[in-house]
Amino acid sequence: MDQFLEVSAIEPGNILYILILKNTDRPLGILMSSLCGIHSIEIEIEKDTFVQKGVLGTMKLNEKLTIFLDILHLTQMAKMS
User: Fold this and answer.
1) Residue 18: CB partners within 8 Å, gap ≥ 6?
2) Which Pfam families match (predicted)?
3) Cystine design at 66: which of 4, 19, 29, 61 (Cβ 3.0–4.6 Å)?
4) pLDDT, tens digit, for every residue of 44-67?
5) How distant, in Å, are the alpha carbons of 14, 62, 64 from that of 33?
6) Distance, C-alpha 6 to centroid of its chain
7) Sign of the dihedral through C-alpha 5, 6, 8, 12
8) For residue 39, with 0-12 CB atoms within 10 Å meaning exposed, 13-18 middle and 19 or more buried, which class applies?
C-alpha cells in the first residue's frame, strides 16, 4: 500500500493480517499491521480531509482517524505497475 499511497510501510517482524477481497477479477488481498475489528455503522465519509488517488475519504471511528480505500482504483493502480 505504501507504494501507492502516502502511508507508512509495515514494520518487519510484526504479526500481519491479510484481508482477502471478494468480487475482483483476480485474487487480491491487503496486508495490514493491525486489525481493529468489524463495525456496523452509518458512514459519513469526509472527502476533503485526506485527498489521494485510491482513497474515498476519512471519518473518525472510535476516536481514531479511519481511511476508507477505493479498492477498485487501487486495483487499477496495481495492474498498471
Assistant:
1) 29, 30, 31, 32
2) CheW
3) 61
4) 999 998 889 889 999 998 888 888
5) 7, 18, 16
6) 12
7) positive
8) exposed
What are the phi and psi torsion angles at 50 (to 5°)? Answer: -135, 90
**Grid coordinates representing 41?**
455503522
Cell numbers standing for residue 27: 485474487
3-state per-residue secondary structure call for 21-63: ECCCCCCEEEEECCCCCCCCCCCCCECCCCCCCCEEEEEEECC
Domain ranges of the chain: 17-80
Q: Can you read off the three cell numbers belonging to residue 20?
A: 482477502
Q: What is the CA radius of gyration of the chain?
A: 13
